[in-house]
Amino acid sequence: MKNENYYFFAATFDPINYGDEPPISSEEFRQLCHKFLSKEDAAFLKYCYYDPKLCMDAIKPTGSDFIDNFMQQERGFLELLVSLRAKKLGRSVEPISEGHNAFGDRVCKAVLEINDPLEAELYINKERWSALEELVNISYFEVINIYTYLLKLQLLERKHFFDKTKGTEEYQNLYKTIVDRNIQEDKK
Fold first, then answer.
1. CA 31 to the chain's CA centroid
2. What angle (nearest 5°) sits at the alpha carbon of residue 104, between those of residues 102 and 109?
3. Are 114 and 120 in contact (CB under 8 A)?
4. What is the reported pLDDT for 185?
5. What does each C-alpha distance from 20 to 16, 62, 68, 158 come to in angstroms?
6. 22-79, pLDDT tens digit by residue?
7. Alpha-carbon distance 102 to 100, whole Å?
8. d(C-alpha 68, C-alpha 3), whole Å
9. For residues 103 and 152, what is the distance between their CA atoms, to the nearest angstrom?
10. In-domain check, residue 182
11. Torsional class of 99: left (φ above 0), alpha (ψ -120 to 50), beta (otherwise)
12. Residue 72 resides in a domain
């Protein structure tokens, strides 16, 4: 893969930190990427998702060291997490890929100690963010940083989606709707 710089495009990114609201949706950003990246670099966007099926299926080299490292890290983490959770339930799972990694080992060990599923997911997201920080290049204008920005936007969206207050409000609204519907049906 050619190492192309995207000075104009990268200079337009709003800075983001883990606790921030996403300044743009990941899908809007993905559309901008297709507009500003070369066709060769844009072709790798299809791998820039936190999607377990995609990670498990993408085992052949893609042509991008960054994407390959990202996929390998996610695959190792997901396999180990599934294996350890299965073991906790008295079941076993055969490994599919080349094995585990330091990220997976560290995160899985901590996640299994967290009893609250929301807290476990938030911990995984924060660790994924930190792992992305370790994978990026120093040059802000390289395509690797664009891929990383896209992945970070997804983590911010996911974190926002898991907001405890909003989740509780949505649950209460859904519950009220179901109760109201049942009351209406009982009156018939």
1. 18
2. 100
3. yes
4. 67
5. 6, 31, 28, 12
6. 999 999 999 999 999 999 999 999 999 999 899 888 888 999 999 998 998 898 888 8
7. 7
8. 16
9. 17
10. no
11. left
12. yes
Q: Rounded to an integer, what is the distance from CA 111 to the centroid of its chain?
A: 16
Alpha carbon distance 29, 145 (integer Å): 13
Residues 6+ apart with CB under 8 A from 82: 93
Specify whether the CB–CB gap between 155 and 50 falls below 8 A.
yes
Q: What pLDDT does 134 receive?
A: 83
Q: How far apart are CA 92 and CA 137, in angstroms?
A: 38
Specify the length of the chain in residues.
188
180 domain-assigned: no
Which residues have C-beta within 8 Å of that of residue 151, sequence separation ≥ 6? 48, 50, 70, 128, 132
Q: Which two tokens stand for residue 65?
A: 């060291």
Q: Which amino acid is at 2?
A: K
Which residue range forms the structural domain that includes residue 96?
Answer: 7-163
Q: Do the domain assignments include residue 43?
A: yes
Cα distance between residue 86 and residue 80, in whole Å:
10
- Read off the pLDDT of residues 122-178 as tens digits, 9 standing for 90 and up: 999 999 999 998 877 677 889 999 999 999 999 999 988 876 676 667 667 766 777
**Domains of the chain: total:** 1
